[in-house]
Amino acid sequence: MVVKAFKHAWSAYERDAWGMDEYFPIRKEGHNFVPKGFGFTIIDSMDTMVLMGLEEEYQKARDWVVNELTFAQDEYLNVFETTIRVLGGILSSHFLTGSHDQILIDKATDLADRLMGSFGTKSGIPGASLNLITRQPYPPENRELTSTSEATTIQLEFKYLSHITNQTKYFDAVEKVNDMVEKLPKIEGLVPIFLDPETGGFSGVDIRLGSRGDSYYEYLLKQYLLTDGEEPNFRRMYDLSIEGMKKVLLRKTYPTGYLFFGEITTYNPKSISPQMDHLVCFLGGTLALGATGGKFHPSLLHKSPDSNMHKYNPLSRFDEEALLLGEHLTETCWATYTMHPTKLASEITVFNTDQNNNYDTYVKPADVHNLLRPETIESLFILYRITKNPIYRERGWEMFLAFETHCKVETGGYTSLKDSSVVPPILDDKMETFFLAETLKYFYLLFSSEDFFDIEKLVLNTEAHPLPKFNLK
């Protein structure tokens, strides 16, 4: 059914918006981020097609990239989004199709060479946006901050490109950013969500594990994994940040006792704001991956009848606590789905920490939308592969059916929701590219055979584009 869902989404985009960046399924039309577009939906979807065995769809998409896509456009684009979606998508497609398609590497190096201009700031911290013709990092009249996640979530893609092209310049550029951020003062390993490319320092005091902060922590672990443990400083920084999360941000709801990570805000920096983005739900799977390296370990939260059938090595106390915390956090994320009659989560959830109240969660009216996000299904997939506990597959199936029931557009495509808290939900008429790149990919992997897609050997970038581990030369 997941492949059928992908085809339902893809065929509508192909029919109504071919070559355009994103798709509005109710209006049956596309939209470009810049006038000519970059085919974000096409490139973001290609490796999903490869994994699903959709050869005809992949070949048409690949031919468009080869024959139609040009990066020589006098427009500013977000460096982070372009790297994780376009560069990551091309590199992953090249790898998954056998690493023989040189034209894809030519496209990747063309794009990366342009993106290298983003490091041309006073500090070397990349500008948030870049003109792909002038290679100017952000408009001169509009000096802008770069979010910490944007500056530190381009490393996998640039490092892997260096590995397959034997050109060290890509590795060196992002490693300089790593070195700078590593030396900056932090709070228990936690970082503010903005960097100033002019000074190279942090800007502001806001700390959160959701938007603008999330994938900094994700890529600490994944850089360590990508080079097969040969860069231990990233593991050290990751472990320190996990301890900091537990010490500074971790809270519990009343009356049920759900665990969640709050936020430090400019408005009240001495207390923890008890809310969490859906984006934070990636962390359940990341914690489990960091604890086990992708190897089997029985669930520490849910009993499984066949958990004794598999051999496993005991975890250290730190890793055991991390795995259990990852499962607890995913339990909380699952609760944000089941709290609504649609069984679909809202973008941001507020958690009750007052013992005098009899509710665990509520959602502000401005935050009831659902964007077809992948983070919870991502964690369900990783936790299922690690623990082999059927509860994670069962919950994934319930979630898939909820998307089918409330987000599927009969004429083609799937739509985000303006309000996921009511039935019928209020539709928003937008299919984000990450629905095809990530959400449906994680559903497909969750329900696939367990010997398909080895999470011990592959590292998924933050847009779910898989890259193989490699050793430094």
Brief write-up:
The chain has 473 residues and is mainly alpha-helical.
**How many individual helices?**
15
Q: Provide the residue-averaged pLDDT.
A: 96
Q: Name the poorly predicted regions.
A: none
CATH architectural grouping: Alpha/alpha barrel
Head-to-tail CA distance between termini: 43 Å
Class by alpha and beta content: mainly alpha
Organism: Conidiobolus coronatus (strain ATCC 28846 / CBS 209.66 / NRRL 28638) (Delacroixia coronata)
InterPro entries: 6hp_glycosidase-like_sf (IPR012341), Glyco_hydro_47 (IPR001382), Glycosyl_Hydrolase_47 (IPR050749), Seven-hairpin_glycosidases (IPR036026)
Family: Belongs to the glycosyl hydrolase 47 family.
Active site: 81, 214, 347, 375
Structural description of this entry:
Pathway: Protein modification; protein glycosylation. Its cofactor is Ca(2+). It is an enzyme of class 3 (hydrolase). One of its GO terms (cellular component) is membrane. This is alpha-1,2-Mannosidase. This protein has 473 residues and is mostly helical. It has a single domain, classed as Glycosyltransferase (Alpha/alpha barrel). The chain is built from 15 helices and 17 strands. The strands form eight sheets. Strands 11-12-13 form a three-stranded antiparallel beta sheet, with no helix packed on it. It has a two-stranded antiparallel ribbon with strand order 1-2. Strand 9 and strand 10 form a beta hairpin. The N and C termini lie far apart (43 Å). The relative contact order is 0.13. The model has no long low-confidence stretch (mean pLDDT 96).
